[in-house]
Amino acid sequence: MDKLVIEGGKPLSGTIVIQGAKNAALPILAASLLAKGTTTIDSVPHLLDIDVMLNILRELGCRAEHTGNTVVLDTTSAHTSHVPESLMKQMRSSIFLMGPLLSRFGEAQVYQPGGCAIGERKIDLHLQGLQSLGAEIVEVGNRIVCRASKLTGADIHLSFPSVGATENIMMAAVLAEGRTTLSNAAREPEIQDLQRFLNAMGAKIMGAGTDTITIDGVDQLTPCRYKVIPDRIVTGTVMVAAAATRGQVTLQETQPAHLSSLIHVMRRAGVQIVVDGDIIKVGSSARPKAVERIVTSPYPAFPTDLQSQIMVLLSLADGVSILKETIFEGRLKHVDELSRMGADIRVDLNAAFIRGVPRLYGATVEATDLRAGAALVIAGLAAQGRTVVEQVHHIDRGYDRIETMLTRLGARISRSSPVPQAPNH
Ligand code: EPZ
Questions:
Q1: How far is the CA of 326 from the centre of ligand 1 (A)?
Q2: Which of 75, 108, 238, 332 would be a feasible disulfide site paired with 98, CB 3.0-4.6 Å?
């Protein structure tokens, strides 16, 4: 398994262009199944999760090429609605293939995605939404068979604004007969991007970005070319790394409006942030201030996907901060690893009490999930001495060659891959 080796203590500086959004590209690639023909998606980063999605689409009979940051996807020959269990296990968010498969084939066969390091990852809201549209769902062991001879628009209310359930229901409703109204929908920018993509294919969707989305079913969709939005979580990760290393970094091709809650928190911590169009400039030359209380909540509140990263900045602050995680029940596993680097953090249920320390110290630490791994990289960049981050494959799920990106900003970071063992003769 690859490791990242980081020599800390050097402020980041320079300019970086932000990659396209993983969590926009994934549902958009799945939604491409809704139209027969060749769809082209631009600004798709090279990530393990993207590779898994493309392999699933190939397994379903599509032709998919990922050249540069462009994916060309020909769905003409898609011929099965069965997503192999082995591929579902690699990426649980492939559950939102159910909507497109149900719309295209009248059937979808997937598998319980199962829990992961950050939580149980239930899918009850997905299944309830599809049933409201007329799907029949049978669970045989961990296999889920979903069938619908016809999908009919319905009024659906989500008990929680689930991102994936909102996306699945949108994709199942676009070709249904009649109007679907989805209330208490997720409002994330990735939902808005999915609406723009589906409407570019001929769908009639309104309201994404608000808590009520209206979908008027159409007879068919046609392929298109589309560019996904910048990745707000990668943007936020680099912003926090710049502040934690007391550097000066300019981020280009961003959408600052998607990061209002992070910008607000970082300014409260005393970080200089200047926004100019799609450019964000981040600078810090002093120890950050503590931020009394941050609570992760659905967009536009503070995102759970930036919780572990901001915790690193707060662990270096002058004072005590409280960080409460309300989205995933298992998303504080990075605290133990940060504590091994000298952080002073106490966890009580889903709240972390962070008493800032003057500095962190390099150590060998383990990434437990995608964003926790990114946080440990930030901690290594800020720490005094050498940090080795293990289980880097978690990080590669969401960051396109993170060491290359950070080296461009002056970081002393390299990837070490295990020497392949000579076969025992
Ligand atoms: C999406 O996951 C993102 N993934 C996650 O990003 C992100 O953390 C999450 O939204 C919240 O913003 C993708 O977009 C691919 P949810 P998703 O459904 O759709 C519960 C990353 O790091 N829930 O909004 O799975 C669930 O258990 C990843 O890039 C149900 O109870 O998130 C969780 O506690 C991690 N029943 C909460 O809702 C359901 O049917 C949020 O889940 C669905 C969800």
A1: 12
A2: 108
The amino acid at residue 361 is Y
CA 66 vs CA 56, 73, 279, 340: distances in Å: 14, 9, 27, 40
Phi and psi for 41 in degrees, rounded to 5?
A: -115, 125
CATH number at 270 reads 3.65.10.10
Is residue 354, in this structure, part of any structural domain at all? yes
Q: Are 378 and 266 in contact (CB under 8 A)?
A: no
- DSSP code per residue over 142-176: TEEEEE-S--B--EEE-SS--HHHHHHHHHHHTTS
Q: Contact 374/308 with Cβ under 8 angstroms?
A: yes
Number of domains in the chain: 2
Residue 296 is given by DSSP the state: B
Higher pLDDT, 421 or 233: 233
Which positions ≥6 away from 3 have C-beta within 8 Å?
388, 389, 390, 392, 415, 416
Domain boundaries, position 401:
3-18+230-416
- Name which of 78, 139, 80, 75 is nearest 108 in CA terms: 80
SS3 letters across 304-352: HHHHHHHHHHHHCCECEEEEECCCCCCCCCHHHHHHCCCCEEEEECCEE
Segment 310-342, tens digit of pLDDT: 999 999 999 999 999 999 999 999 999 999 999
Tokens representing residue 326 in the block? 């309300």
Please give the DSSP secondary-structure letter assigned to residue 289: B
pLDDT computed for residue 116 by the predictor: 77
Place of tokens 């809201």: 125
Do residues 94 and 83 make contact, with C-beta atoms less than 8 angstroms apart?
Answer: yes
Question: CB within 6 Å of ligand 1 — which residues?
Answer: 23, 26, 93, 119-126, 160, 162-165, 186, 304-305, 327-328, 370-371, 398
Q: What is the pLDDT of residue 200?
A: 98
Cα 23 to ligand 1 centroid, rounded to whole Å: 10
User: Which band of pLDDT confidence, cut at 50, 70 and 90, is reported for residue 72?
Assistant: very high
Task: Give 420's DSSP letter.
Answer: P
Same domain, 243 and 350: yes
